[in-house]
């Protein structure tokens, strides 16, 4: 694992801990800047390598992410200054997935095979019945609570800035690579995200109004995604904003060269709320 990848994991772990015991989660700086608060929030399987060179190699990466946790509060994330790509994510709500996104700066594949597969699944079967004062007792969609804000930092490379607030928000399988060169190589990437809400509970009228979600651009030398999602089911999935991509030979010509990308996102809301 590259140094930047290790730093990303440490930053993400620290960000998650910040929201574990308090009611408000804050995150500042680092290549992965994540403030996660809510019932089921996944920020997993994202790729943002500074330099990747594969020559005569076979690379296979497979990651499955699931999250059964439960928290609820406001979240805010502020990006820092990084030499490379940057993810700045603030998630608040019931089921928010920001997974399988790619923001690699420089990738060179020569006579190689690269296979990457990321699968993210979250399921909410919680019951919030009258008088059940447990971890699911307060509906996370109370109109006076909840909110997500994210501000991008300064990155020499691509940047993702995402603020998610709502019931089921998927920001998944997006690609913002800067320079990719494939020479007689085969690259296959697949991202699958699924969110299902089968929760049941009691709530007051108008309880599905969520707090505001705001995302503000930073400064990025490369592609940039800025997304603010608010509502019940919002999908921002499979977007492609690669800056430069070269393949030799072309995929429709004879030879093993080619690229295959696939992103599948599904959000199902079968929840029942009694007023």
The SSE string, one letter per element, is HEEEEEEEEEEEEEEEEEEEEEE
Task: Let me know the average pLDDT.
Answer: 78
Give the strand tally.
Answer: 22
With strands numbered from the N-terminus, the spatial order across the biggest sheet is 1-5-11-17
Number of helices: 1
Q: Please state the structural category.
A: mainly beta
Helicity range of the residues? under 10%
Strand content: over 45%
Uncertain ranges: 1-22, 130-144, 205-209
Terminal residue distance: 50 Å
Task: Report on the architecture of this protein.
The chain has 275 residues and is mostly beta strands. It is 6% helix and 54% strand. It has 1 helix and 22 strands. The chain has one helix at residues 3-18; strands at residues 24-28, 32-42, 51-55, 58-66, 74-78, 81-82, 86-97, 106-110, 113-124, 127-128, 148-151, 154-155, 159-172, 179-183, 186-197, 200-202, 213-216, 219-220, 224-237, 244-248, 258-269, 272-274. The strands form 6 sheets. It has a 4-stranded parallel beta sheet with strand order 1-5-11-17. It has a 4-stranded parallel beta sheet with strand order 2-7-13-19. Strands 3-8-14-20 form a 4-stranded parallel beta sheet, with no helix packed on it. It is globular and about 60 Å long. The model is unreliable at 1-22, 130-144 and 205-209 (pLDDT under 50).
């Amino acid at each position: 694992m590259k140094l930047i990848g290790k730093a990303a994991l440490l930053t993400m772990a620290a960000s998650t801990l910040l929201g574990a015991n308090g009611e408000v989660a804050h995150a500042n700086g680092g290549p992965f800047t994540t403030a996660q608060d809510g019932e089921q929030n996944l920020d997993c399987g994202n790729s943002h390598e500074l330099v990747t060179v594969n020559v005569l190699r076979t690379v296979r990466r497979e990651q499955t992410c699931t999250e059964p946790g439960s928290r609820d509060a406001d979240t805010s994330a502020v990006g820092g200054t990084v030499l490379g790509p940057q993810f700045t994510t603030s998630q608040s709500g019931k089921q928010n997935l920001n997974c399988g996104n790619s923001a690699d700066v420089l990738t060179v594949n020569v006579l190689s095979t690269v296979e990457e597969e990321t699968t993210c699944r979250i399921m909410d079967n919680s019951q919030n019945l009258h008088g059940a004062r447990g971890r699911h007792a307060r509906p996370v969609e109370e109109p006076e609570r909840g909110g997500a804000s994210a501000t991008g930092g300064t990155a020499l490379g691509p940047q993702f800035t995402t603020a998610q607030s709502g019931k089921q928000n998927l920001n998944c399988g997006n690609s913002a690579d800067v320079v990719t060169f494939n020479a007689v190589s085969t690259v296959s990437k697949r991202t699958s995200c699924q969110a299902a809400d089968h929760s049941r509970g009691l709530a007051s009228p108008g309880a599905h109004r969520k707090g505001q979600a705001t995302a503000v651009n930073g400064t990025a030398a490369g592609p940039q995604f800025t997304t603010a999602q608010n509502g019940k089911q919002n999908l921002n999935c499979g977007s492609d904003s690669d800056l430069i991509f070269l393949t030799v030979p072309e995929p429709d010509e004879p030879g093993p060269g080619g690229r295959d990308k696939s992103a599948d996102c599904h959000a199902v809301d079968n929840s029942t709320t009694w007023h």
